[in-house]
Amino acid sequence: MKSVIISILSLVLLSCNNSNQSKDTIASDFEKNPIDTVLVKIENKLNKSYEVGFYSKSFTYCWIAGPDTLDFKIGMTEHVRDSSVQLRVFHRNPILFSKALDKINESLPLIEQDFNLEKLGYLHFESPIFYKDMTVELSKSYENQFGKKNISYKQLNVFLMNSWLEKKVGTFLNQFTKSTRRYAIEKFHLLEKENYKQYIPNSDLSDYPSFTIHGMGVSVIINE
User: Fold this and answer.
1) SS3 helix, strand, coil % of the chain, rounded to 5?
2) Where exactly are the structural domains of the chain?
């Protein structure tokens, strides 16, 4: 499964910079960008000889401003075996989680041209450190419940299922008549503030908490 995700990640990061791919676009506005932006849909080529062949189709959605591709990207895939749909968010720069959800919602009309979102079964976001609002809220609640000690993956799931994050994700999923089944953060640990600059080097950390939940992104497994 790890190699599948790595393959898809490679496709997503490369495809928005590949001018030879076919593209469909709709107009869009991007926060704090004075240039008109366009949401671009790019179909990724699947190599059936590798694990990525487990997917029947793969698209990337990204925003173009003039000659530049903006940082925020959405990767969509569909499994061959059951037609379930996966949505992954990719970006290197921090963004508010509420804004990330807005960008996903903005892209839904284009996504629905190629994917049946009634089959949406999985979401993946970057680690909490990349979303200041998520980091602040989760760290505060975590410290109130557990202090600064590590907890089990089972405890982490229970914590997240009753958190600020679940309120946001639950509201997003309501539009599809869906709900969260469980959360997962691979290689979960607590990241100390002194190490934040490794991930968000250009951010003002004055309002960030002293630690944050961290790992290889936040996975949301959705009820069928």
Assistant:
1) 35, 30, 35
2) 1-76+88-103, 126-224
